[in-house]
Design brief:
Cytochrome p450; binds protoporphyrin IX containing FE
Amino acid sequence: MSDPTTLIPPGSDTPACGPPILDDGVWWVTRHADVRAVLTGVNFRVPEAAPGPPATLAWLRGSVARFSGPGLHPARRAAAVAALAGCPPDALRRDAARLTAEELDRDPLAGSARGVPVRVLAARLGLADPAAAVPAVALVAAAYQPGAGPAAVRDADRAVAALVAMSPAEPPEAMANRIGLLVQACDATAALIGAAARYAPAAGRSVPTAALLAEVLRLDPPVRGTRRIAARADRVGGQSIAPGAELVLRFDAANRDPAVVSAPDRFVPGRSVLTFGAGPHGCPGERHALALATGVLDVLRQRRSTAPAVPANRPAVPR
Ligand code: HEM
């Protein structure tokens, strides 16, 4: 990719960008303006999770901002944002760089640095055993979206109990939202680092890490989309959406919308679009994710002329 305008075609599973399409009872929303309108519209809700017994996966899902309707969401989001205040992005970047360098000193071939972001965040969030938090958070992340199988839910239940035991004492809802930060950070940040590490050698050292990350987020978003339910009738992109309808919002398609980005399939470092969402549920950890990824990648790029073999780990669109 020494030519910075290399063509990166969309993945075979990325839908084309166009007007909303109703397919098998679900609306597929792919244009930038339409995705943004749904994310910021008052008539669309995240799928809500019911409460569950203390210190279980169901408790976590039923307590976090991510799965809360408009009544409970503001207080829960405020709890998450308050916990994030203890994690200044500059400190996260430094911690992530130090830990990555230590891992590579121990094993220069260690490909992953995969656990670094969660370990750094867990330490800053005050968890008693940040290293042990890494596998626990991964188990919870694997079952966090609806539709996980019973074995994954059992593992996640045990992992939530372990994370609760190592979290600072605070009211249950604050604790759930603190743990929720780790779960939200886990797969997406690792996938961003993995994708950026794959693109980095071809992009060349002259491309700053921030610019590389922005364009990787646009062209190969670690979170490819999200879902909403219509609480009331509305119109999106000229289509009538009935109350109760389900919508899949595809960031990967919207990020290549020619209405907002020129030459959308070309790799031009520095561009960024919708990958962190928008509206009331938009990612509160964007600066933190970028800081963690920058810390890891700066070290990987310094130490390596070729990218480590980091497995692709793009989470599917949540159910
Ligand atoms: C590259 C990494 C990341 C990406 C691409 C990403 C993307 C997103 C997106 C798209 C949403 C909105 C989902 C929706 O509206 O349905 C979201 C929500 C959220 N993210 Fe991130 N995220 C990343 C990393 C992080 C990190 C590092 C943290 C915490 C430090 C974090 C915390 C959260 C939280 C708490 C929510 C739920 C917010 C709410 O519902 O009010 N994310 N993220």
